[in-house]
Design brief:
This protein has about 170 residues and is an alpha+beta fold. It contains five helices and four strands. The protein is globular, with a radius of gyration of 19 Å.
Length: about 170
């Protein structure tokens, strides 16, 4: 009887380990983010990380962070061609179409949800599931004293941003 109980326990532990791996591997948590991290440090944070997992930031966080920082720099420099190129390579076609409509209705930039250019952005991991990952992008305004928070969805297979919404 003891052997049967131990085999069920072993099977249960195997199922749990498999489930954990199924969640973490598509996120690139196995140390790949460290290779993609920008030189000179990074401002992104992986919320909800297990203790000791600080260096295991999902690739999607790095990708979204790089996009927003480059996009804000392009807007700040008045380089609309660069901003458009960044949209083309980092946003899904469907989102670009949605943003164009939103921009027509609001006379503002759809990616930042504003008419002005933010002074910076921080990105935090907010979970993954069903082929998507979510990040919280905190845009900083007025020297960083004011913020706007966006909930950004990315497709895990391409890491392209596929949706974004402001927090209410």
């Amino acid at each position: 009887m003891s052997h049967h109980r131990n085999s069920r326990r072993t099977k249960r532990h195997s199922i749990v380990a498999g489930a954990v791996a199924a969640v973490l591997l598509p996120l690139g948590v196995a140390g790949t983010a460290a290779a993609d991290a920008p030189a000179g440090g990074s401002q992104h944070t992986a919320t909800g990380s297990a203790p000791g997992a600080a260096a295991s930031t999902p690739k999607v966080v790095t990708k979204v962070e790089k996009f927003y920082r480059s996009y804000i720099a392009a807007l700040g420099a008045g380089d609309t061609a660069k901003a458009d190129s960044l949209r083309e390579s980092n946003l899904t076609k469907s989102l670009r179409t949605q943003l164009a409509e939103w921009e027509r209705q609001h006379s503002a930039d759809g990616v930042t949800r504003a008419q002005n250019v933010p002074v910076g952005a921080d990105v935090a991991y907010d979970g993954s599931g069903m082929g998507h990952s979510w990040t919280i992008v905190t845009l900083k305004w007025n020297g960083g004293s004011d913020v706007t928070k966006l909930h950004v969805q990315s497709d895990l297979d391409t890491l392209r941003i596929s949706d974004l919404k402001t927090f209410d």
